[in-house]
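Posting for a labmate who doesn't have an account.
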Amino acid sequence: MSQAIHVKLLRPGARVPSRATEFASGFDIHACLDDGPMVVGQRPVMVPTGLAMEVPWGLDAQFRPRSGLARQGVLATFGTLDADYRGEIMITLYTVAPGIEHKVHDGDRIAQLVVTRLADVSFEEAEVLSDTKRGAGGHGSTGR
């Protein structure tokens, strides 16, 4: 059964998130720019979307980079849309190397929104954790 996320369009040109293809897991998020294109470089830039959303409790809404932009060296930071946030959604973009600049135009797809169910968990303090083969092995401890 589908659960609705309410979307408020804050400005003309704002677009309701949509799937690019029938089986896409992410919903495209578009830039909504009032003052012309924005230039993205290595310093993070917050790009407005013209959207506010009401995510029902129990859903986990995450913003992620788009693979087409990542291929060009342009990344969106991962972000969480909390169920109690009602302000404009801003997507933080940056480039991964000096010399890479990307121009964002009004209506460009800048990120994707992936929605899943939120796990209902609690945390319990413990004196001892169970043993595993990996143990406390950190980054790279399981191989290449």
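Reply:
Got it, the structure tokens are right above this. The chain has one helix and eleven strands.
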